[in-house]
Amino acid sequence: ADRRTLLKLTAGLLLSPLARGQAPFPEPPVLKSRDGLLQVRLKVAPTPLSLVGREARLWTYGGSFPGPTLRVRPGDAVRLELENLLPESTNLHWHGLPISPKVDDPFLEIPSKETWSYAFTVPQDLAGTFWYHPHLHGRVAPQLFAGLAGAIVVESPVDGIPELREAEEHLLVLKDLELASGRPATHTPMDWINGKEGNLLLVNGASRPTLRATKATLRLRLLNASNARFYRLQLEGHPLYLIASDGGFLEEPYEVPELLLAPGERAEVLVRFQKEGAFRLLALPYDRGVHMMGGMEHMGHGGMSMGTSPSGPQTLLTLVAPPRPKPLPLPKALAKLPALNPNQARVTRRITFTEDMMAGKFFINGQAFDHLRVDFQGRAGDLEVWEVDNQGDMDHPFHLHTHPFQVLSVNGKPLPYRALKDVVNLKAKEVVRLLVPLRNLPGKTVFHCHIVEHEDRGMMGVLEVG
Ligand code: C2O
Ligand code: CU
Q1: Quick one: pLDDT at residue 252?
Q2: Ligand found nearest the CA of 264
Q3: Do domains 30-154 and 332-465 have the same CATH topology?
Q4: Ligand 2 midpoint to CA 201 (Å)
Q5: CA–CA separation, 326 and 33 (whole Å)
Q6: What distances in angstroms separate CA 190 from CA 179, 298, 360, 429, one per listed residue?
Q7: How far is the CA of 372 from the centre of ligand 1 (A)?
Q8: DSSP string covering 426-444
Q9: Which residues line ligand 1 at a C-beta cut-off of 6 Å?
Q10: pLDDT tens-place string over residues 352-395
Q11: Segment 306-334, tens digit of pLDDT
């Protein structure tokens, strides 16, 4: 099949300033802080709901899929009681928020029928798109695949930036799913190696919805809450303007023809419509090096069976160079970091990813995760340079809790923009260097591959900051 045909096979979201009909664009319910406090009681439970027009039974937070969006501001207090009505233990991870690992505790286990209270203050110096999901080692993959994920938006003032102030904002939670008799499909042995992908590509729980924009500029918050699927996103006839990464704004919009979102990653993009029409947001095929051994069960991967293309005319667009808006407010934590030459920086930690396909195991520095072992000891306030080396044959998105970092280089090449990240994808044989300012958040935290099956199967380590 040529590239055009592949494009047509991919599923997409229709973005249109005046589109008609089809499934309306849904957004998860929003729980907003009031007077500096967000107080919620969230049930995590098996939930009957209707999905792509069928009856399904997923596991949800607060009864919705995806879970409710928690919308807060820097400095807000968060009190969240999690009531576990699942038939098994779980816990909750505040992905990307630099908060104490004593609160965001990856070792915590909340047994079935029990309730746990999370309490913390949203850090002052950070804004962006984050998320929450279970983090019980060994069970993350099935629980996430069953539906357990929700977004966290930390709002930042955009008063000084007219284009952002006037933009229409939407959240897009990208999550794939596969149903078997109305239930989330269970993991096959091959899924535990490649990471599980589903045949339904859902945007906020809907298949190919239509978003009818009322303004010429859209600000889209994108979250890849999938277990293992990568989204190589392209908007027909439009460049995307990347304005924020995992941990907040870039200095200025960065024009990208397409955008790759690895599992766990977030991005904010501006869409600047120059013309009326309906434009599809496409998920292009992406080769992440999945292991091909063991039969045909993985044939759904890589974009060949993502459903049929939406019918109707495609409108193409003339590219017009946009005016440069005012500088964006760069996160303070990022602005404070020194400019380092990535190739001269002294590396303070080395991490290697390796795979043992036959055993279905995944390692960091040759070892499988052990919650009793401390892999790295660090000191609060230290500025570290980590080198992560993917010696495997598949992509592995690296994620570090508690201490957001800056990507200095990929294979020795400096990144063209500065961004505060907590997930960075490594293609096979890629090496990245990260500038990691250790925050004053002492305690044991973890770093791992965000293909959660790999995390469950050992690709995680412990960092203790004292
Ligand atoms: Cu979103 Cu440790 O993960
Ligand atoms: Cu991995």
Answers
A1: 87
A2: 1
A3: yes
A4: 21
A5: 28
A6: 17, 8, 9, 22
A7: 19
A8: E-TT-EEEEEEEPPS--EE
A9: 93, 95, 133, 135, 264, 399, 401, 448, 450
A10: 999 998 899 999 999 999 999 999 999 999 999 999 999 999 99
A11: 322 333 322 222 222 333 445 677 888 89
Amino acid, single-letter form, for residue 127: A
Closest ligand to C-alpha of residue 133 is 1
Atom in ligand 1 nearest the alpha carbon of residue 460: 2
SS3 330: coil
Domain ranges of the chain: 3-24+160-299, 30-154, 332-465
Question: For residue 401, which atom of ligand 1 is closest to its CA?
Answer: 2
Please tell me the number of the ligand nearest to residue 246's CA.
1
Dist. CA 223 → ligand 1 center (Å) = 13
Q: Which CATH superfamily is domain 3-24+160-299 in?
A: Cupredoxins -  blue copper proteins (2.60.40.420)
Question: Is ipTM strictly over 0.90?
Answer: yes
Kindly give the distance from the C-alpha atom of residue 253 to the centroid of ligand 1, in angstroms, as a whole number. 27
Residue range 141-198, pLDDT digits in tens: 999 999 999 999 999 887 778 888 889 899 999 999 999 999 999 999 999 999 999 9
Ligand 1 closest atom vs CA 446: 2
Pick the residue whose CA is nearest to atom 1 on ligand 1.
95
Would you state the torsion angle of the CA atoms of residues 246, 119, 99, 126, taken in this order, to the nearest 10 degrees? 50
Question: Percent helix, strand, coil in the chain (nearest 5)?
Answer: 5, 45, 50
Amino acid of residue 346: R
Of all protein residues, the one whose alpha carbon is nearest to atom 3 of ligand 1 is 95
The CATH number that domain 332-465 falls under is 2.60.40.420
Tell me the CATH number for domain 30-154.
2.60.40.420
**Model confidence at 20, in pLDDT bands (50, 70, 90)?**
very low
